[in-house]
Specification:
alpha/beta; TIM Barrel; Type Iii Antifreeze Protein Isoform Hplc 12; 8-stranded parallel β-sheet; 11 helices; elongated
Length: 348
């Protein structure tokens, strides 16, 4: 099973697709946003992903307690104020898309309402991401799916029934290329709660390609996910955590993104395929396996005793399994210490 984003195949048999999530790490600067895209490309990421919303498309400016964040990274923020701080202005998008395309890195986005989809369609986005918090927004999923573009959906917080409903909605509305990302929607997410074994379960249960939207610190969970079948890895990315910003605390810096791109693709290369066929690289090593050797000078006609042969390295003689069978057999020719025991030298 594979999908394709800008002719880049994604799926079993292909290297993992690494997405650097820009999110709010532009810190309110278009110049920084463009530089982040450039550095992500230099680090080896396959794609840069944006988030397309405004504070007014996400929520309303309201001081009621319902609209206040209590606890966690953004404790004390009013939702509207947080999104106003973090938003990527709609009028930046064309410059960001053009810059990414000039560099040769795939660029797409997470829309949070229909106006965002319309903007991204006008920019000919090659794919869409549905955020975990929007997985239950079935009208939005339906609207995105009708574009016919590949969809990547995060499953953080979602029950099995909610994931099933989202997948069914996307498929019924015309999405034929779908990836589900396992996700723990905590910022950051504790590594001990990463629950990576959910990744193969998602693939089996929903018959889709799978990946990981990783909010843990570092790159360990992302690399481990590759061994469990993840073909897409998404990680927040910033030029420097020291510069602060809404998402900087759980974002990778450039040297970490380089390591992720390298290690994830190395992990994929290490998977190989199941079965008992040995790798060609092992062939030269076979000579150093144990085999049967004469350890005494013996004349032809001698009957072999346990003291005459040993199971030693290298591997030019008969396999060790023939040791007991050879005891009491007659030697056909004169042998010297250090000669391999061969069928043609013994009356079998």
């Amino acid at each position: 099973m594979t999908i394709s984003i800008e002719k880049r195949p994604i799926g079993v048999g292909h290297p993992p697709f690494i997405i650097a999530e820009l999110s709010a790490n532009h810190n309110g600067s278009l110049e920084r946003a463009l530089k982040t895209i450039e550095v992500a490309h230099q680090c080896g990421a396959d794609a840069i992903k944006l988030q397309t919303y405004s504070a007014d498309t996400m929520t309303i400016d309201c001081d009621r307690e319902d609209f206040m964040i209590r606890g966690g990274l953004w404790d004390g923020y009013k939702l509207y104020d947080l999104y106003k701080w973090a938003e990527t202005p709609f009028d930046w998008h064309q410059a960001m898309f053009e810059h990414a395309r000039k560099l040769g890195i795939t660029v797409f986005s997470t829309p949070f309402d229909e106006t965002a989809v319309d903007l991204l369609e006008s920019l000919n986005t090659p794919a869409y991401k549905i955020a975990s918090f929007e997985l239950t927004d079935l009208p939005l999923i339906r609207y995105v799916a009708r574009t016919g573009k590949p969809m990547i959906m995060s499953t953080g917080m979602a029950s099995e029934a909610e994931i099933e409903e989202a997948v069914a909605t996307a498929r019924e509305a015309g999405c034929s290329e779908l990836v589900l990302l396992h996700c723990i929607s905590s910022y950051p997410a504790p590594i001990e709660q990463a629950n990576l074994l959910q990744i193969p379960q998602l693939a089996k249960r929903f018959d889709v390609l799978v990946g990981l939207s990783d909010h843990t610190l570092g790159t360990t969970a992302s690399v481990a996910a590759i061994a469990l079948g993840a073909c897409v890895i998404e990680k927040h990315f910033t030029l420097s955590r020291m510069d602060k910003g809404p998402d900087c605390e759980f974002s990778l810096e450039p040297e970490e993104l380089v390591r992720l791109c390298r290690d994830a693709k190395d992990a994929w290369s290490a998977l190989g395929k199941s079965g008992f066929e040995r790798q060609a690289i092992e062939t030269p090593s076979k000579v150093f396996r144990r085999s049967l050797y004469f350890v005494r000078d013996l004349p032809a006609g001698t009957f072999i005793t346990p003291a005459d042969i040993r199971r030693i390295r290298p591997g030019h003689g008969l396999p060790p399994k023939f040791f007991d069978l050879l005891i009491g057999k007659k030697i056909k020719v004169d042998v010297r210490r250090g000669m391999p025991v061969l069928v043609e030298n013994v009356e079998m």
